[in-house]
Specification:
Chain A has 11 helices and 15 strands. Chain A is α+β, with helices and mostly antiparallel strands. In chain A, the strands form 4 sheets. Chain A has an 8-stranded antiparallel β-sheet. Chain B has one domain: Immunoglobulin-like. In chain B, 33% of the residues are buried. Classes of the chains: A alpha+beta (322), B alpha+beta (213).
Amino acid sequence: MFFASTHPLLSWLRPPYRLHSVYERLLGTEVELQIVAADRAQAQTAETAALDELDRLKAIFDRFDPESELRRWLRRPAGQVQLSPELWEVLARADHWREATGGAFHPGADALGAVWKQAVQAGERPDEAELRQVVQQLGARPWTLHPDGSATLHATYELGLNALAKGYIVDRMAELAARQPGVSAVLVNAGGDLRTIGGRGLGVQVADPFTARDDAPALGTVRVRNAALATSGSAHRGYDVGGQHYSHVIDPRTGQPVQDVPGVTVVAPDCATADALATALSVLELPAGLALADATPGAAALVVGRTGHKAVSQRWNALTGR
Amino acid sequence: MTDQNDRNELQHDATDTPTVTGPQTRRGFLGRLGLAAAALTVTQLLPGGLASAATTVTAKTGAKAWAAGNALDITFTVATQATGRVKRPFVAVWIEDTSGKTVRNLTVWVAQNRLNPRWLAELSRWTRDNSNLLDTVSSATRNPGTYAVAWDGKNDKGAALPQGDYYVCIETAREHGPYSLVREKVSIGSTSFKKTLPASNDIEAASLSFARA
């Protein structure tokens, strides 16, 4: 046993072990982990490291936990507060995408979402004046980041970092797992937002964005290696008001749910970028969205309209080919 | 706790659904998963023409055929209340006729490291090579524990079945969790309907909708 695990030739001959787990109810969805390692123990160690990292970051970003760092910070407007490096970095990325998209990506979209949720409970459309007021508030910057790692919160409306935070957590999990001894390849897939490191990459079946059925045929398969992929669409979530279904994607520039939300799939070097782009492209007009993907290094997008019309950005075929 | 649940389940079967052909056990469930997976693999290996060329059963029996384009949507929610690191349950969904014979296996989600559960198409990609990552799926963020499949009125060979009475069966098992079975009779006619199914242990909610797909 001692020789089996230490002799270089024997360990070279022994086939690698691939761990494959799917967990329900992590990050508000399901999380799939694949880890290829020299042996089972190393794969399990790497999995535990990734799941522990998820728990650690959840304590920072979980919007449903009143004691998360994010929620505690959101209760302290106006003061300058020292933040964890993780929260500061995600806030900085949110600033970048809010500016790069002209407000189509906005952490304050949650405030509009809250107005729509109330309307769902009341069974009527939200008050237009209330929506306009929130949209106006979103025009100002929600916070100021200071170079010393602290931040000042200006916004008094509801803020959410969902799109970015989930991708960021997926990245940290995948990177940590990939650094563990003996690990040669990693996949972390949080409900469709994924990052893979090492190995020969893998095929990703992109689900039909317009059905929630699990047994429906996929839209197609793309090849991803040492990169991230994220999909957004309205198949699984939305609001029902007065018998009419509205998408869960709200345009922060108008306060209105996006009509005919397209299915958007984005590849990018990391999952936080893929997630932010997928969210932005759900809201942006098609030409502006594709231009944004082209302007983002290492990124490409596939946009599927409600009529089934597909559009791709310049690098899509190059980045997702076999 | 788990044994108690199993016993209740068996009693429930014995009293409420007399047409069940045998007691449902964990072993039986795993066996069913294996058979279903094998059946699906065989189906995939058949040339497409063979399946589509199968004649309809209805012509012989004289019973009415399914209205073209109608489908039975089956939606269910599994174990959303469980806490901690919960692995995805084993899930099987199938259709039985009134004699308890399985006429259609709809979906099997099998555990990790064996068959990639989410998409049936991936069954053919099962490989002994462990050195690479398995293919995966990306969809719009799905709600955890909620599943949706559809039955198009065909049997496993691709032949259209007649209108009439069928049983919709949903079965789940989970590490450290209870065994769960929902088995409900539906009458397929020409009119659309919606129906809420009774819950069972881990299967917290299940519903049917019969309409034009």
